[in-house]
Amino acid sequence: xxxxxxxNQKRFDKLRIPSxxxxxxxxxxxxxxxxxxxxxxxxxxxxxxxxxxDDVTPHFAEPNxxxxxxxxxxxxxxxxxxxxxISDPLTEAPKFEIRDNxxxxxxxxxxxxxxxxxxxxxxxxxxxxxxxxxxxxRVDNEAYALQVTGHSGNxxxxxxxxxx
Length: 164
Known about the structure:
single chain, alpha+beta, Immunoglobulin-like, four-stranded mixed beta sheet, 10 strands, 21% helix, elongated
């Protein structure tokens, strides 16, 4: 994307790392010399690769989350919690899934922006489902927890979400 490219170039220029020291570019040069094939277009792409991209491991901002459970019949879907997910802005937009044993909640809206540190922050809402009846007696005296998994690129990470 245009944003990713301009951000990437800005970060690359700021670091002033000569391209010959970038590990991915060096690898491309070695591959070229062994194989003898033309990697000019691939090398061009690699020269614009982000030297920090390997440093951004996708993760949730908190090790776990808690929220109060809305009780009774849910006439409309509503936001129950908002989780913050950090990922590399140069990978595809993160995707989320939820494991909810009672099927009361769903992944809601997502809002993403690249922060001042050059990482992608995504706020994802956990919403109550429209029409479900949330019976607090089903969870009295036990800790009810959901699990939310975020997928970014080829990596996934999960976080427990405790419901009171």
